[in-house]
Amino acid sequence: xxxxxxxxxxxxxxxxxxEMFQKECKEYTGGAMLSxxxxxxxxxxxxxxxxxxxxxxxxxxxxxxLLDEKxxxxxxxxxxxxxxxxxxIPELRFFVDDSLDYIDKIDSLLKQ
Length: 112
Known about the structure:
- The protein is an alpha+beta fold.
- It has helices at 4-23, 60-69, 71-82, 99-111; strands at residues 33-41, 47-55, 91-96.
- It has four helices and three strands.
- A three-stranded mixed sheet has the order 1-2-3.
- It is globular.
- It starts with a helix and ends with a helix.
């Protein structure tokens, strides 16, 4: 179970990463539309698991590769934004949130 501090830092990172991907870091998305669905921060605030919803989903592999290549730069920009609010800027790890695909699959199975 996450602490209150972990939840606050996660929401802060989620908000700022979403803003970054929309405005400043469009070249990192590989032409896909990204939305940050959740951020889970470790107990020691050193790692953050960032869950992304990627549209179209067929570009998810390409987008994750681009984000992994540019991870240091993304963390640097994030550090400029949240550096005054957190002591440690967490290391970012990106994952695909496939819950929407799962929901579509369940809906299609239920309609049959």
